[in-house]
Design brief:
Chain lengths: 637, 637
């Protein structure tokens, strides 16, 4: 096997580069990373030049890790650390990362953990062998983050084996012959929903996103996964997820059900949000008596196979493909996936969903890359008329609607995705109430919004800088405002439904094709004092779209019986909160992109919008642009 | 299994339709044909209405066959027939077709076999049980046709099993869900050579052609058969071959080597020519010390799996795809493959190589169809400037070149494909010598041209009507002229090479990338009295193209040593003999096509020509036209 040859050649390189006083106790691949174990970690760390030189000569990412024999048993180490740190530090969690030999200490007062000139940290290192890392406790504890951390700990050995297997596969022999790059549209082309693209070279196959079409709950709404290009599933090298919305990742666990056994590459927040939303999707299907595409065991498999990758980090995802994520500005952890193929052969970037504007939550999407020949970009708002108001105009519109509804004693109902729009609307509502622009009222959060918000605060480095500063430096965390009330049980919801007082409710799902929003809508639709406000994109085929298009008589399913609903409540649309770039932003993204790509492929938009955007880009910038159709394959090199 | 259900339902239908006095002894599928065995064949035959009604009610092609117990043993029957027929009839062959219960009697004087009012035929039928069919003996006996007939006889039982298996597969259950039609360019797009397209529906996969790029003998010149779309090979439902040139069928036997085990659909002459050319290709590779893609056993497998289909016959090639061949006018048996997909869902026609002009050999290609939504057409001469002279202009040019060369005592060397151009050039040369337009000289045929010509005379129904009449009614067979000399051994060739007399040599291969033409070229290139005439298309990368482009110093390989050749002989190109439509014919084909297709896809042409033709068709006729690239997939429905 080739990997053995690689390892033995690597030993040679290491011998040449590493001075003899540094002890090497083992080498191996974990995923794409070349791991070197040492009993003299300190000497190694002090000489960063060696690591750089090793990475260069080995032409791989290199991780230096302490030999496991140096690390104290976890439980004993935890006890020791608790003894060393003063109780005023208010440690909220301690967890160990065997892969790096690091122990992370979460505390309300990180300074007290560090001690004077780092004295306590040094003591911890000396006593336990673990390298301590201190972070501030997230302001809202997330159940998901905690559970995933515990789960990964429980499958540590299995994960090591997975990473080793991935590492071996990445180092397989390459065949010789003509090289080429192509990709197949498996879903989400000419439509919004079930995004899925297969990137293929002569050597490798990478699946970029694998989402569900939530507007198609009668069919199963999956991408075209029965085509020969993706079969057998275990021949695929890796799955790359651009962000956690279900239309980009909702089918991923089903891949493990049907035989896929490889890695998933995504940002750390995407991994957590993805698990949260998939679990919810499964539960909702169960609750509505539909057959779920997968079980929770498959979601656990997916989490187990995640290889998290931060913005700007580069990793091999196939023998001839390297992946780098860049901020996409769409939701927490959303990424543009940049693929470098071959040794300088070709570069393709998939935008995923992206926002080319700084929002209340995130920085603007990245559009500068070292190299890009083909750009695959979304076109949700790609139509000629799809001009959206600015963030501030949107806030003003929202203010007016909320004002008049609350004043007339009505309720404001806002369907939102748990992840993304809800947090922005929360920030805006909190600010408007705080400065008195709208009357004080409770803002109830139903359907995982609370938990999603907690995950946001667990990953502050993915928020935009001003929000990060407000939360962590100024202690002004809008999410902690007392106006927000969590709906966390059926009883709370029932009580709220029959409460006559005006209030604001943010509830999922964002397109009203299920979720708790339906309960509120059923109860409140006939009162003209109430208002339903759409703040996000309503896809073709969803209930949200039908109501937005002025359908005023709705038939819903109530325990198998048809339920007729007359929509008398005010229906308002508040554009400008979208996590998607509007037409002007899409065009500006291309215009200011560096380098100018040779080719653009349009996806993730209704057919007419995709075609309109494609021809506009071609006419305006002279770039060959094509709106691909599902099931088509384009060759780019 | 579904097929059992189909058969039992069919029994019901037969009971209803067939009167009780007709005996049914068995039913089954062979390929797409529903076969009914009977002991009372005559009663059946007399009532053609029953057969029609059965076909209608069963919604399948129906074949009525005599119960095998009624047929006399072959050898005994042969003896009996020989006793019945008078020796003056000059019977040249008698062969039995068990599948139909027919015995074919080839004779120089068919009338004497038939007897007065068919008396002898009736006697044969009565005495042997076999239904006699009389045909005129082909004027030139073909070794290939005979060998293939013998081979098929020797594997009769195996073939029956193959056909049964195909029949069962064609009757498999269909899955439910969205239907679609797409195809992938696997070779021969943006290039001439290695034609190969994969036609895919949700249910089925059909490979249309599978050729070799003969200009790429260093690479293996195969289509992209390592892509996941075609793997595993045994998942493909069928292979359709449009004609026998190697750039359309040269890789087919390799498919059997690598696991394909299904049927090949082609016209009867294509089957024979294909085997001939594949065997030659294999031998040439062997002779040149190259690794052949396959062995002769794989060619036999291919022949064994051929399901011959005449022009105008329709057959199921997959549960949801029906195929009809139409004349393409390119070479003997060349076909346009028309696919009807689903029940009225979609229609695609692949032209293969086609000539939209009546030639000395064939009728003009068909361009009227019941329905066609997408046309896939070749573009060998699709460039703006690719205007070819008419057949008659071409003959005049050829006459002048031959005249001056023979007059100055030189030799005329014409590289030709064994199949197609050689027969046309033979007809023209024969006529010109016969009417005294050029001096009398021997025309030597080297490299299978003789055998290919023999196959032409074995399939007179595939020649154009005037040629057929000349041969069979008027007894004027140009191929039998004494000017034609066969080079059938190395000694004959050596003698010819050193013979000082002027002569004409037609030799393969047509693009000078191998074959006996090279020996003549090596010997005669330096004499300015000689002339090399190109009468066919010279693909990029071939020696023919290099010489045509005025390269006058050629380095050839002589038993591993470089051999420098100075080209002093006259180099002439005689356009107009091509089996391909020129630019005007291509445009006229589209303009006069019925019905007008919704979409045209261009293949089989250099990239610039394909693009030029595509944009011209779009501009001129307003039909969406695209020049697909190899490895791309287009969705048409």
């Amino acid at each position: 096997m080739s990997v053995e040859k690689v390892l033995s050649e690597a030993e040679q390189v290491i011998k040449e580069v590493v001075p003899p006083e540094i002890d090497i106790s083992g080498i191996d691949f974990e995923g794409s990373v070349f791991v070197i174990y040492t009993k003299t970690l300190d000497e190694f760390s002090q000489n960063s030049d060696i690591v750089r030189q090793l990475a260069q000569n080995l032409r791989r990412r290199v991780a230096i890790r302490p030999d496991p024999s140096l690390l104290q048993d976890e439980e004993m180490a935890k006890e020791k650390i608790k003894q060393i740190i003063p109780p005023e530090a208010e440690v909220s969690d301690i967890y160990f990362e065997h892969e790096t030999g690091e122990v992370t200490i979460e505390a309300i007062s990180p300074g007290l953990v560090i001690g004077k000139h780092g004295a306590l940290l040094n003591e911890i290192k000396k006593e336990t062998g673990w390298a301590p890392k201190v972070i501030r406790s997230p302001p809202i504890p997330s159940k998901t983050v905690g559970e995933i951390r515990d789960f990964l700990k429980s499958v540590r050995e299995e994960r090591r084996q997975i990473l080793k297997k991935v590492g071996r596969r990445l180092n397989r022999d390459l065949s010789e012959g003509e090289t080429w790059v192509r990709f197949t549209a498996l879903g989400g082309y000419g439509q919004v929903g079930r995004s899925c693209t297969l990137l293929m070279t002569r050597e490798s196959r990478i699946l970029v996103d694998c989402g569900v079409d939530v507007s198609n709950i009668n069919g199963n709404g999956t991408p075209y996964l029965n085509v020969p290009e993706v079969l057998p599933l275990d021949s695929i090298d890796g799955i790359v997820i651009t962000h956690a919305h279900l239309d980009h990742c909702g089918v991923v666990p089903a891949l493990y059900k049907y035989g896929y056994d490889g890695p998933i590459y995504c940002t750390p927040p995407t991994r957590d949000l993805m698990a949260l939303l998939q679990l919810d999707y499964m539960k909702v299907a169960f609750g509505e008596g539909r057959k779920s595409l997968y079980e929770s065991s498959h979601i656990r498999e997916a989490v187990k196979h995640c290889i998290p990758l931060k913005y700007g980090e580069t990793t091999d995802v196939a023998p001839d493909i390297r992946l780098t994520f860049h901020n996409a500005g769409h939701i927490l952890g959303s990424a543009i996936a940049h693929f470098h193929i071959g040794e300088g052969l070709y570069n393709v970037a998939f935008t995923g969903d992206f926002k080319f504007e700084k929002t209340w939550l995130f920085n603007s999407a990245v559009n500068k890359f070292p190299r890009v020949e083909t750009l695959v970009m979304e076109s949700t708002y790609g139509g000629f008329r799809d001009i959206q108001p600015s963030r501030h105009e949107a806030a003003e519109v929202l203010r007016d609607i909320v004002q008049r509804t609350l004043k007339r004693g009505g309720k404001v109902l806002i369907p939102v995705f748990a992840v993304g729009r809800s947090q922005e609307v929360m920030i805006v509502l909190e600010e408007m109430m705080r400065i008195g622009e709208i009357p004080w009222a409770n803002v109830h959060l139903d359907g995982m919004i609370w938990e999603a918000t907690a995950i946001h605060t667990a990953y502050p480095e993915y928020l935009n800088s001003s929000l990060r500063t407000a939360i962590f430096q100024k202690g002004e965390n809008p999410f902690l405002s007392e106006i927000f009330k969590r709906v966390d049980s059926r009883e709370t919801r029932e009580k709220l439904l029959s409460d006559p007082d005006p209030c604001i409710v943010l509830a999922t799902s964002g397109m009203m094709n299920g979720g708790p929003i339906i309960s509120y809508f059923k109860e409140w639709a006939d009162d003209p004092n109430n208002t339903l406000i759409f703040v996000g994109y309503q896809a073709e085929g969803t209930l949200g779209r039908r109501i937005q298009r002025e359908q005023r008589e709705i038939v819903l399913n109530e325990k198998g019986q048809p339920l007729n609903i007359k929509v008398n409540m005010e229906i308002a649309t508040c554009d400008g909160f979208s996590g998607h770039s509007d037409r002007r932003q899409l065009m500006r993204y291309v215009r200011t992109m560096e380098p100018k790509p040779e080719r653009i492929v349009i996806c993730h938009g209704e057919e007419s919008k995709a075609l309109d955007l494609a021809s506009s880009i071609y006419r305006k910038f002279g770039i060959e642009t094509r709106a691909l159709k599902n099931l088509e394959t384009i060759r780019v090199k």
